[in-house]
């Protein structure tokens, strides 16, 4: 049974509310003074508070109600509080709404509206608590993963990235190729580092190769090495390839989708046998190398187009890990941004809102560059939005640009039966933001 604390110095009001609540499945506690209310909060599990704004017959300023409200919020920051007001304290109640009060009702109140408001707030509170408990449980799981494995400094909060990281740590000890997919700058190389760091080959070399940056005519020499004079412009010394350099460790092939068909044939052979020949040599060399590859390309489409070998795809794709774009894991934006700070700066609230509003088409790489830029340009310790150098307009997510109009706000208020907290949640706004828009359009909560 949900519990409600009634705080009013008028015994008749307390009795009427107590009876009303008991008839509708709510257990009520009654306090006739702020001190008694705070004592009951300490002694009992309370789900919601209905409080008056004045507690002496000769007082109409609402100051006592303000003090009680703030004292309750200090004890229970998430406690829903409904304010009962006389006409003299409406302005004060509106001000408290901006501080987090759930709603206010004038005296005499409408029983039906009061009950609807309470039940909606209790449902919202229950959902919020469940969400917080779920987040807390997920945080414990993430902490266990971070404690059991080397995450190479990676910071994340989202479920999507946790799934990818968890899978990476599980496959790290398996001696199989791994294919990492995802857009440029999303963190594919960091996932490869995590796999290497937690594998039996962690003490061995970790060689990175950006395949897309290698000229086609030098690809074989770079990957497999070359004998002196094996090609035009070649050195007069033998050249060790990346596979030889990675022997006993891991070779990370980034932008694999750009590898030529000739290079794909040679790569397939190495994956199958561990053998290859240097360019210009007939001597077969043997290596023990784990290959982790990454691509932002659609390799299945490349197979259909005839630019990527199907047999190589299935050889590389024993395990596939996907790194989602930063725009689809908003929970990671602020933790990742804070990890990029230099220790001498912090984000202002306005800068944090700008970071969350940006769509990050360049993913984590763009975020890192923006934070580094801000640390260099910030005039003080607090980084401001202008320091971040974020482009406006096209990069702002659609959900941010969809400013609710008057009709949308009215529909949300009607659907929430006037409960501001419910309507604000439906519109994706804070209560304060919704009140500003209601004032702008001349709307009332009920």
General description of the model:
It is a single chain. With 446 residues, the protein is an alpha/beta fold. The chain has four domains: 2-128, Response regulator (Rossmann fold, 3-Layer(aba) Sandwich), CATH 3.40.50; 155-324, Rossmann fold, CATH 3.40.50; 327-398, Helicase, Ruva Protein, domain 3 (Orthogonal Bundle); 403-441. 47% of the residues lie in helices and 13% in strands. Strands 2-1-3-4-5 form a five-stranded parallel β-sheet, sandwiched between helices. A five-stranded parallel β-sheet has the order 7-8-11-6-12. Strands 9-10 form a two-stranded antiparallel ribbon. Helix 19 (420-427) crosses helix 20 (431-441). The longest helix has 38 residues, at 111-148.
SSE diagram, text form:
Elements: E1 2-7, H1 11-22, E2 26-31, H2 34-43, E3 48-52, H3 63-75, E4 81-85, H4 90-98, E5 103-106, H5 111-148, H6 159-171, E6 178-181, H7 188-197, E7 206-210, H8 219-224, H9 242-245, E8 250-254, H10 261-273, E9 275-277, E10 284-286, E11 290-295, H11 299-305, H12 310-316, E12 319-322, H13 333-339, E13 346-347, H14 349-357, H15 363-377, E14 382-383, H16 385-388, H17 398-401, H18 406-415, H19 420-427, H20 431-441
Parallel strand pairs: 1-2, 1-3, 3-4, 4-5, 6-11, 6-12, 7-8, 8-11, 13-14
Antiparallel strand pairs: 9-10
